[in-house]
């Protein structure tokens, strides 16, 4: 759970919505520090060819409540998961940091 602009956001709910897109195979979402909103969603998505992060962000804005749509999306080859298939949040954050997408100064 992360707090964005006074609303509690369940990352799982956002992940479940992302995978309803026909070209998204899997998705993981984490709350990232934001100076204006407290936290915002950052997502990693595994997608079929020819779907860009910008196109997926546009789809999110059209199909999700604005405060639930991820602010940033990184397209990856796979998600870090446990043996039970649950997304490993600290590893997901590290993946976003390594990709240069995590907000500057956001250590969470």
Average residue pLDDT:
93
Which secondary-structure class do the elements indicate? alpha+beta
Q: What distance lies between the first and last C-alpha atoms, to the nearest angstrom?
A: 13 Å
Main sheet overview: 3 strands, mixed
Radius of gyration: 13 Å
| Total of DSSP H or I helical runs spanning 4+ residues | 3
N to C succession of SSEs: EEHEEHEH
CATH homologous superfamily descriptor: ANL, C-terminal domain
Unreliable residue stretches: none
* Percent strand: 25-35%
Family: Belongs to the ATP-dependent AMP-binding enzyme family.
InterPro entries: AMP-bd_C, AMP-bd_C_sf
Domain AMP-binding enzyme C-terminal: 13-86
Keywords: Fatty acid metabolism, Ligase, Lipid metabolism
């Amino acid at each position: 759970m992360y707090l964005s602009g006074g609303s509690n956001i369940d990352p799982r709910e956002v992940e479940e919505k992302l995978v309803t897109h026909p070209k998204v195979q899997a998705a993981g979402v984490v709350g990232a520090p934001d100076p204006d909103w407290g936290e915002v969603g950052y997502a990693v998505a595994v997608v079929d060819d020819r779907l860009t992060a910008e196109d997926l962000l546009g789809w999110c804005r059209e199909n999700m409540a604005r405060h639930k749509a991820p602010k940033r999306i990184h397209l990856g080859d796979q998600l870090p998961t446990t043996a039970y298939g649950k997304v490993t949040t600290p590893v997901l954050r590290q993946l976003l940091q390594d990709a240069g997408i995590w907000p500057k100064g956001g250590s969470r």
